[in-house]
């Protein structure tokens, strides 16, 4: 059975919700799925002052975990048009894995969130995908089988590069059904690819 890791960082819970949907999709494809998050690097006082969601139940990942999965799907919100530093700091510890080629041929994917529609979803997804390619991973995005990414009837995240959600400037908008469907779809597609390559 293929093993899939959904690895995320979330300050306010939007990416946490998307991670659960990605995991649901991967499980539906028949993979064994774990959800883990990366450590918070902001000082406690800063995290509390900024009202970070500090009660997230997912266990904290170690860099060594990455080697134990056939697919790693990374979710992290936008910071100034690229991935948040908490995730970058985690991935920057993967030099040893990179040097050994330990992640070559594993399947990877990315999902994200921004406050605004044009606040950098695609650039953030590519900032994640760039790292996945450096690790030698096979990147799977979100194909147009998730037709909901094409709708003009509602504001929605989702693109060929990965699932996404839009939170609003005050974070009050939660992932919509269409965005969660996209997240499930991408999780399923990545798990199916991992099963074909490694299962
Ligand atoms: C320092 C900082 C920079 C941000 N930069 C952007 C940005 O460039 N574009 C944007 O649309 N949202 C930006 N945001 C909003 C976050 O992307 C948004 O709060 C996050 O993706 C929500 O996901 P989460 O609830 O999982 O943390 C920024 C937020 C912070 C705290």
Automatic annotation (TrEMBL):
Flavodoxin-like domain mapped to chain residues: 4-190
Cofactor(s) recorded in Swiss-Prot or TrEMBL: FMN
Catalytic activity of the protein: a quinone + NADH + H(+) = a quinol + NAD(+); a quinone + NADPH + H(+) = a quinol + NADP(+)
Note on cofactor: Binds 1 FMN per monomer.
Enzyme Commission (EC) number: 1.6.5.2
Enzyme class: oxidoreductase
Gene Ontology terms for molecular function: flavin adenine dinucleotide binding; FMN binding; NAD binding; NADH dehydrogenase (quinone) (non-electrogenic) activity; NADP binding; NADPH dehydrogenase (quinone) activity
Amino acids binding FMN: 10-15, 78-80, 134
GO cellular component terms listed in the entry, alphabetical order: membrane
Binding site for substrate: 98
Keywords from the named record: Flavoprotein, FMN, NAD, NADP, Nucleotide-binding, Oxidoreductase
Residues annotated for NAD(+) binding in this entry: 12
Domain of life where this protein originates: Bacteria
InterPro entries attached to this UniProt entry: Flavodoxin/NO_synth (IPR008254), Flavoprotein-like_sf (IPR029039), Flavoprotein_WrbA-like (IPR010089), FMN_Rdtase-like_dom (IPR005025), NQO (IPR037513)
PANTHER family (UniProt xref): FLAVODOXIN-RELATED PROTEIN WRBA-RELATED (PTHR30546), FLAVOPROTEIN-LIKE PROTEIN YCP4-RELATED (PTHR30546:SF23)
Family, as annotated: Belongs to the WrbA family.
Protein name: NAD(P)H dehydrogenase (quinone)
Organism of origin: Asticcacaulis benevestitus DSM 16100 = ATCC BAA-896
Lineage: Bacteria, Pseudomonadati, Pseudomonadota, Alphaproteobacteria, Caulobacterales
């Amino acid at each position: 059975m293929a093993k899939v890791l959904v690895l995320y960082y979330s300050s306010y819970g939007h990416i946490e919700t998307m991670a659960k949907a990605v995991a649901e999709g991967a499980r539906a494809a028949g993979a064994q799925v774990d959800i883990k998050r990366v450590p918070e690097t902001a000082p406690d006082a800063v995290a509390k002052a900024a009202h970070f969601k500090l009660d997230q139940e997912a266990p904290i990942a170690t860099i060594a975990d990455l080697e134990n999965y056939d697919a790693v799907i990374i979710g992290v919100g936008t910071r100034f048009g690229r991935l948040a530093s908490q995730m970058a700091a985690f991935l920057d510890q993967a030099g040893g894995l990179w040097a050994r080629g330990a992640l070559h041929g594993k399947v990877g994917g990315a999902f994200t969130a921004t406050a605004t529609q044009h606040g950098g979803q695609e650039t953030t997804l590519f900032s994640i995908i760039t790292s996945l390619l450096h690790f030698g991973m096979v990147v799977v995005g979100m194909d147009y089988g998730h037709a909901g990414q094409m709708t003009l009837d509602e504001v929605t995240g989702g693109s060929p590069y990965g699932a996404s959600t839009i939170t609003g400037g005050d974070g009050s908008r939660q992932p919509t059904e269409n965005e969660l469907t996209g997240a499930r779809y991408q999780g399923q597609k990545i798990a199916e690819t991992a099963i074909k390559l490694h299962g």
